[in-house]
Write a structure and sequence with these properties.
The structure holds 2 protein chains of 2 kinds.
Chain A (H helix, E strand, L loop, with lengths): L2 E10 L2 E11 L4 E5 L6 H8 L7 E6 L8 H7 E4 L11 H11 L4 H14 L15 H12 L6 E5 L7 H16 L3 E6 L2 H4 L5 E6 L2 E7 H8 L3 E6 L5 H9 L4 E7 L2 E6 L3 H13 L6 E5 L3 H15 L1
Parallel strand pairs in A: 3-7, 3-8, 5-6, 6-7
Antiparallel strand pairs in A: 1-2, 1-4, 8-9, 10-12, 10-13, 11-12
Helix pairs in contact in A: 3-4
Chain B lengths: L2 H10 L3 H30 L6 H32 L2 H7 L3 H5 L5 H22 L1 H10 L4 H28 L3 H31 L20 H10 L1 H4 L9 H11 L40 H23 L19
The chains are: A alpha/beta, B mainly alpha.
Chain lengths: ~300, ~350
């Protein structure tokens, strides 16, 4: 594990921002923190990034307690907050060179580091441009480059895509995927769940300062998804017959016709889905399309938080 | 080189604004210097029977003293302005956290900020150095006087800058930081003069009696940069022999009063002092046509130097502690009473 949080608590006055958070972040993973605003995502990230002292619990980042040896952790960690922090009158390359110097990159290596990073984030052509003149997406990529100046093992990205247009989001997502391929561990938070879809290998759902669910994304999906939505396309004149056939199965619910397709909720796994498909085919119906939709992050999040609310 | 310092230099001196400010500053100092020169000439021309050489020396000293006081005033007026925004500015543009997660130590961050402010001020001093050096052509002061003046000015700038930095680190807004820094600066430069007068009035009373040999020190005189600079530059007990009004005269009178000597403007009417039996005074020399005096108290400037060094050190430590992340002191939490309990 590259980072672990165990029973971490943090209060702001009377508000409990973290209430016994337990997290284990595997090395090389892209670890998503999801949750509504005020759930405790940013506070968790600040504690990991050495910027905030916890009130209780244990934290280890790369085997180091961030409160005991913050500089040791900072050597191995790159942090990108949920805001831009830029200096006036500096160009993109000067900005990176400054942070490279502040992060302890040797003078002889700085120019190469700056050039490489600007290329990585696709800003080489903006090297001499004033930082203030860059677009929001470019600033965000520059900010990511800043977090990488000292080649950290662990990247902590707090809401990196907030406020970006769709194209910039896609670029950022590709960049994060590239960093993951380069072996970096990435902790990334968002309250816009679709942003994390397709990037994260692991996930933690945080709400009211507590971890509601945590683990590899596929496992969470498997554990939590007891039902899935299935769409079947059959010849138009057979829709009613297929609907009746499917409706008679005990694992099938909420059967409906939508735009000439039969849609239903299946309470079962992939085997049940295959069995149903076979039944339809054996009954002599042609099947042009059989699509099983796995639960999306939003669906999972709603399910997790709904279960919690129900339990309460 | 400290990365914060090199970045700030790059930022500060880029663009036309910096060049324009330096031009206006140089112009302003030049004009004030010229006015001081004219006043000095006027005062010198009032001397009766004084030779040309002595008059020139007097004008030189007059101009030098005027420039020294002007530079101390510049410290008081400029340093808080260039320092107060340094850390609160980082917080407002949301870059402080970014600096805190680098390898910079809090002390490096604070020293970088202070040295960048002081280097800016030094550049302003260097820009007007030819004007400040003009009095040397006239004579009337030594290179030692020049270095003493520069030294006190730099120390004052360091102290004011350090305190402004500590205020900036704690301030919630740039307005608060600027107001706090200028308030401190004005207190030590101007309000302390009122405190010195009040102390003198309280401890000397209206009877104009001399302070007894074991009398109380005028402590507020230690904090004032003008008094310390005049004390360091002029060795006033030695220099007042000509008895003429110069820019240093008001401060010299306060220094006399601190020693227990009562001397009015014009400098010819000494009180009877009778300190000892003509033991050489600190700073050397004999003052007055008939009386010998020696200093009862040591020089103010040494006390001021010690005080300023201590204040600077404490302020820098405070500023460094404030920008340390995670916060060194545990955050206090309020216990919330359970409503049902």
């Amino acid at each position: 594990m590259i980072a672990t949080l165990s029973g971490v608590e943090k209060r702001y006055g009377s508000v409990k921002a973290l209430d016994g958070i337990e997290l284990e972040i595997p090395e090389g993973s892209v670890f998503g923190l999801i949750g509504p605003n005020g759930a405790g995502k940013t506070t968790s990230m600040l504690v990991i990034s050495t910027l905030l002292a916890r009130d209780a619990g244990k934290v280890e980042v790369v085997g180091i307690d961030p409160q005991r040896d913050p500089r040791g952790v900072r050597r191995l960690l790159g942090y990108m907050p949920d805001f831009f922090g830029f200096y006036e009158n500096l160009t993109a390359s000067e900005y990176l060179a400054f942070f490279a110097a502040a992060s302890g990159v040797k003078p002889a290596a700085r120019a190469a580091v700056v050039t490489d990073l600007l290329s990585l984030v696709d800003l080489a052509h903006k090297s001499g441009a004033d930082v203030n003149s860059l677009s929001r997406g470019m600033k965000q990529r520059l900010s990511l480059a800043r977090a990488l100046v000292h080649d950290p093992q662990l990247l902590v990205l707090d809401e990196p895509a907030s406020g970006l247009d769709p194209r910039a989001r896609v670029q950022l997502r590709e960049l994060i995927a590239e960093l993951s391929r380069l072996g970096k561990t990435v902790i990334i938070s968002s309250h816009i769940l679709s942003e994390l879809e397709g990037i994260c290998s692991h996930l933690a759902v945080i709400d009211e300062g507590k971890v509601k669910a945590v683990g590899p994304l596929d496992e969470i999906r498997k554990t939590l998804t007891s039902s899935r939505r299935v769409t079947a396309r059959v010849p138009d004149d057979k829709v009613d017959e297929v609907m009746d056939l499917l409706g008679s199965d005990p694992t099938v619910h909420e059967v409906e016709i939508e735009k000439g397709r039969v849609r239903f909720v299946l309470s079962g796994d992939d085997t049940d889905s295959a069995r149903l498909l076979s039944r339809v085919v054996v009954a002599g119906h042609e099947v042009f399309e059989w699509r099983v939709d796995a639960a999306g992050l939003e669906e999972l999040f709603l399910q997790i938080t709904a279960e919690e609310a129900g339990a309460a | 080189m400290n990365p914060v310092l090199s970045r700030e230099i790059l930022e500060r001196f880029r663009g036309r604004r910096a060049a324009l400010l330096i031009f206006l500053w140089t112009l302003g100092i030049g004009l004030v210097g010229y006015v001081v020169y004219l006043v000095g000439q006027q005062v010198a021309s009032g001397f009766f029977g004084m030779g040309r050489l002595i008059t020139t020396g007097f004008v030189g000293r007059f101009l030098f003293q005027g420039m020294v006081l002007l530079m101390v005033t510049a410290v008081v007026m400029v340093v808080p302005g260039v320092t107060a925004l340094t850390i609160v500015g980082e917080r407002e543009r949301q870059t402080l956290g970014l600096l805190q997660v680098t390898q910079l130590t809090p002390f490096q961050l604070v020293i970088g900020k202070l040295s960048s402010s002081l280097s800016y001020f030094l550049l302003l001093v260097v820009a007007v150095a030819p004007i400040i050096a003009l009095p040397l052509l006239f004579g009337g002061m030594s290179l030692g006087d020049v270095f003493a003046g520069l030294g006190m000015m730099l120390l004052t700038a360091t102290m004011v800058g350090s305190v402004s930095l500590a205020i900036s680190a704690r301030a919630k807004s740039s307005r608060g930081a600027v107001a706090g820094s200028y308030a401190f600066s004005f207190v030590i430069a101007f309000f302390s003069i009122a405190m010195i007068l009040a102390e003198l009035l309280v401890f000397r009373g209206s009877t104009n009696e001399l302070i007894p040999p074991r009398g109380r020190e005028i402590y507020s005189s230690w904090i004032n940069p003008y008094i310390a600079t005049v004390d360091a530059v002029a060795a006033p007990l030695a220099l007042r022999s000509d008895g003429q009004f110069t820019p240093f005269t008001p401060a010299e009178l306060l220094l006399y009063a601190r020693q227990g000597v009562n001397q009015g403007f014009g400098g010819v009417a000494f009180d009877v002092v009778g300190f000892g039996r003509g033991v050489p005074m600190e700073g050397g020399g004999i003052i007055g046509p008939v009386q010998e005096i020696r200093a009862r108290r040591g020089p103010v400037w040494i006390r001021t130097v010690v005080l300023y060094v201590v204040i600077s050190g404490l302020a820098l430590l405070r500023a460094a502690r404030t920008v340390t992340a995670p916060a060194l002191a545990p955050i206090r939490t309020k216990r919330v009473k359970n409503a049902t309990a």
